[in-house]
Design brief:
Layout (H helix, E strand, L loop, with lengths): L4 E5 L2 E7 L1 H5 L10 E7 L2 E7 L16 E6 L7 H14 L2 E6 L7 H11 L5 E4 L8 H8 L3 E5 L6 H8 L25 E5 L2 E5 L21 H7 L16 H7 L5 H21 L1
Parallel strand pairs: 2-4, 5-6, 5-8, 6-7, 8-10
Antiparallel strand pairs: 1-2, 3-4, 9-10
Helix pairs in contact: 2-8
Length: about 280
């Protein structure tokens, strides 16, 4: 926070400032980074170097993650477009993704069916939990063991509540849902690592916007595994599944073999990327 970092070493935590050379080089230091640090005095030191990363999430901005728990819930109304974009981010960075349905006690069967219809087989797992009723917490803990896991999702879905149950020492502030606009209130203001069962949990602020920067519009479809089994039958090899004739993916949508609302969101994401490309050049 404010250019000051907590670094975990073999001797415990150190409060560190980055070396001037890192600041001059505008080297960004992210939560999850592995660094070399020089001890200056008891409990204090300096960050000398940021070691190469195996991956980097765009939002939340974290590094060296093994898996992301994408938390959603029936309230506030689920933003599946945001879920799609986080999945795309995970796909580009080779990060495992688990969809976590929180507040399951308040969810209708329609909501569960909708999540399954959109994402069954497209994430590493779909887990149903309740921080309030303590449902599914043991399953979450099992998935967390030995991994560096980032909790991500829109504000108000209960990420902090889940962490308060998994990590009693966390004691994060829990926000309320705005009755007027049905949106969550963001209570987590910075990104932080917590040790858990030979691994780490990353708590992050909730967010509602995520731009796709690493994928070109004509390559977007290749990141949709639910399209792949049909795309080989498209008339054109590089079919974007937008307006091309004899598109097997569009036919699969019409037949109900591909989730139609997920396909509609694909069209919107494609449009967003295409507009960004036009503005860039």
């Amino acid at each position: 926070m404010g250019g000051v970092f907590e670094v975990l070493t073999d001797e415990g935590k150190m409060t560190c400032y980055p070396r001037k050379k890192l600041r001059h080089e505008e080297q960004d230091i992210l939560v999850g980074d592995e660094v070399t640090a020089q001890k200056i005095s008891r409990g204090k030191g300096s960050i000398e170097e940021v070691l190469p990363r195996k991956n980097r999430m765009k939002r939340p901005v974290v590094a060296n993650i093994d898996q992301v728990f994408i938390v959603t819930a029936p309230m506030p109304p689920a933003d599946f477009s945001l879920v799609d974009k986080i999945l795309l981010n995970c796909k580009t960075q080779n990060i495992s993704a688990v969809i976590v349905i929180n507040k399951c006690e308040a969810a209708s069967q329609h909501f569960f069916d909708r999540v399954l219809n959109n994402y069954d087989g497209l994430s590493d797992d779909i887990v149903t939990v309740s921080a309030h009723k303590l449902i599914g917490i043991d399953k979450l803990k099992e998935l967390l063991k030995g991994k560096i896991t980032c909790f991500a999702g829109q504000s108000g879905v209960g990420k902090t509540s889940l962490l308060n149950v998994i990590l009693p020492e966390h004691k994060g502030e829990i926000g309320a849902i705005s009755a007027k606009i049905q949106r969550g209130k963001n209570t987590t203001r910075h990104t932080q690592l917590f040790g858990f069962e030979d691994g780490f949990i990353v708590d992050t602020p909730g967010f509602s916007l995520l731009e796709i920067e690493d994928i070109k519009s004509d390559k977007l479809a290749s990141y949709y595994d639910d399209f792949s089994e049909f795309s080989a039958d498209c008339k054109y090899k590089n079919c974007t599944h937008i307006s091309e004739p004899n598109c097997a993916v569009k036919k699969a949508v019409e037949k109900g073999e591909i989730c139609s609302e997920r396909y509609e969101r694909y069209l919107e994401i494609f449009k967003e990327i295409r507009e960004a490309e036009k503005n860039k050049y």
